[in-house]
Amino acid sequence: MSKNTFFLQVLASDKVFYRGSCQELVIPLSDGEKAILPHHEDMVIAVSIGEMRLLDENGQWIHAVVGNGFIQIVNNRVTLLVDTAEHPEDIDERRAEEAMERAAEQLRQGKSLQEHSHFEASMARSLARLRTKHKYEL
């Protein structure tokens, strides 16, 4: 690993999304984004649903939609643990639109606070998937 990179693992609940050297990582936060560069200060940060971008050691950008989770930065090693991580090309647009419609309908029905939070998160995931899919369509 060169001085211009750090070791990164992106772990979703169902797979290892990425493991290797990285030059830069941009993660979604509840109030914006945060960039992680080599030799970043050690910390733990909550990650929100949204678009993640990473610049691999070859200078290629990898884009993904990630779910809620957290990132740990220790000693130039970064671990990102998230509910989900998907490449834009793996997103089923019709399925995401249907999930968003179901969540919107459930929100309109005025369920309990816990159910409301669940459907709000579902809607946010669907919106992030659709936004990222459309952004990187060829």
Low-pLDDT runs of 5+ residues are none
Name the average pLDDT.
Answer: 85
Binned, the helix content reads 25-40%
DSSP strand count: 9
Gross geometry: globular
Distance between the termini: 33 Å
Query: Mind describing the biggest β-sheet?
Result: 9 strands, mixed
| Succession of helices and strands | EEEEEEEEEHH
Q: Rg, please?
A: 16 Å
Q: What percentage of the residues does DSSP assign to strands (E)?
A: 35-45%
User: SS-based structural class?
Assistant: alpha+beta
Number of discrete helical segments: 2
How would you portray this structure in words?
The protein has 138 residues and is of the alpha+beta class. 28% of the residues lie in helices and 43% in strands. The chain is built from two helices and nine strands; from the N terminus they run βββββββββαα. It has helices at 93-108, 113-135, and strands at residues 6-12, 15-29, 32-36, 43-47, 50-56, 61-66, 69-74, 77-82, 85-86. Strands 1, 2, 3, 4, 5, 6, 7, 8 and 9 form a nine-stranded mixed sheet that branches. The radius of gyration is 16 Å and the shape is globular. It starts with 5 loop residues before the first strand and ends with a helix.
How would you summarize the topology of this molecule?
Elements: E1 6-12, E2 15-29, E3 32-36, E4 43-47, E5 50-56, E6 61-66, E7 69-74, E8 77-82, E9 85-86, H1 93-108, H2 113-135
Parallel strand pairs: 1-8
Antiparallel strand pairs: 1-2, 2-3, 2-5, 4-7, 5-6, 6-9, 7-8
